[in-house]
Amino acid sequence: MAAAAVDSAMEVVPALAEEAAPEVAGLSCLVNLPGEVLEDGEWRHHSCRYLRGCFSPRRWPSLMKHYSPTDYVNWLEEYKVRQKAGLEARKIVASFSKRFFSEHVPCNGFSDIENLEGPEIFFEDELVCILNMEGRKALTWKYYAKKILYYLRQQKILNNLKAFLQQPDDYESYLEGAVYIDQYCNPLSDISLKDIQAQIDSIVELVCKTLRGINSRHPSLAFKAGESSMIMEIELQSQVLDAMNYVLYDQLKFKGNRMDYYNALNLYMHQVLIRRTGIPISMSLLYLTIARQLGVPLEPVNFPSHFLLRWCQGAEGATLDIFDYIYIDAFGKGKQLTVKECEYLIGQHVTAALYGVVNVKKVLQRMVGNLLSLGKREGIDQSYQLLRDSLDLYLAMYPDQVQLLLLQARLYFHLGIWPEKSFCLVLKVLDILQHIQTLDPGQHGAVGYLVQHTLEHIERKKEEVGVEVKLRSDEKHRDVCYSIGLIMKHKRYGYNCVIYGWDPTCMMGHEWIRNMNVHSLPHGHHQPFYNVLVEDGSCRYAAQENLEYNVEPQEISHPDVGRYFSEFTGTHYIPNAELEIRYPEDLEFVYETVQNIYSAKKENIDE
């Protein structure tokens, strides 16, 4: 009887998992089978083989790397724990839209996640499963699963980075530190030190092959993986660098990215290896890592405007000055420079101190400083994610930097006071300001200004009423022609977008109306205006007369689509429950509009 029940269960469970709605997909599981089946000895024999198969990359994509093929595992117990974690994950994801729809960044809801019991890998795996759901449905689930996964991984990476920074100053794993920065800024990508090191090892093998043609008895060829041996003879070191330059710049075509210098991808080591380009500091770290593996003791130089490496030419134990080194420009195809040529490179004379070697923390500080500068360039329509990430990283290294704490306070304040942004960020501003005041009482002017405006914002929030509901049937909305979920095209600028909100007239302030030259429009600001998500990732506020239906609608690739919509039908987006509460009559209007558009299109084709 038990065996028959097992065979039946094995056929039914996968089918249930595939056919269920997003809320319960994958949760009709074996743990709900009758007790007599679970306790049967024959069932246990079958189940372990079957359940191990359930942990395959196709079913649960990120789990198998945590298990060794030789380890004994009670797969039934693993399955139970994994399914319980999946239920908890989906319960939390389902709650996020209702709790945080009106907030830009859920900042106090992650406490539920931090208090979860059971292995974190199972919880993360369920989030990955949600993100990998096929089709154009469950967009809101995917949106919040992505946010939660982003948060979880960043917290883990930041803890690892802080532990890494506690290493002694002579701990020189520059690559490891750079990978932590890469991981923190790209937490949803599968980036690991092991994988990046494996790619570098493959480059080292190519260098060794070239080096063998130069000197078949070169001592570097005898080095084993993981060894930290160094070659002392300058001529032998020179042969390694020659081989490296040939492989990196001639054979593999690595080069400095002069055309797109101010791109954050240039600072991420996994992208440097994929795209084979970077900026001076990232190219130098790659060059340094390869050289040291082959026995050449290069050192990093925090040279102004252009990161360099230095190669000692003096005798071991002798007193050295800056002229006893050759300086290597990894950005410039490994070109070897004198002191005078270094100054010519940046167009200015610098002191001898700037030719000195720097430790890991200083190298990471410069990398994060570059990201911070790029983050400040982000447009006002963005979420400032890069700026927030780089501030987090910088303050992890230097937690008492008053100016950066002030910048973080201003950033959170800025995000907190925008319409529909997070109220809890405002409270975080107060915590940061209190810390600044303790560190530097001289900042009381800037702190006082931010505190005053933060408290004023809190008072305004207290006066706000509940959700504003906009009914198309209201007389004051009679001129609103379009509705949420429609795919539109801007008549003047040509961009595609989807509507996620509307106002009967322009609700922006006089300064915005003047700056955007709204008065030059035929209908001015006395016409409906629409909140739209644009395909370039921006959010805009467009006048009705500037929009028209897109008769060939496509999905809008915008990171916030899932915040407002649950599904893309192929012709329009369906609002999620939270957006529909605010525009309860729009969905029916969308159906009528789409039907009319495509009926007219069909008539034109027939004619």
TrEMBL record:
Pfam families: Transglut_core2, YccV-like. It comes from the Eukaryota. GO terms for molecular function: DNA binding. Residues 479-576 form the Hemimethylated DNA-binding domain. This is F-box protein 21.
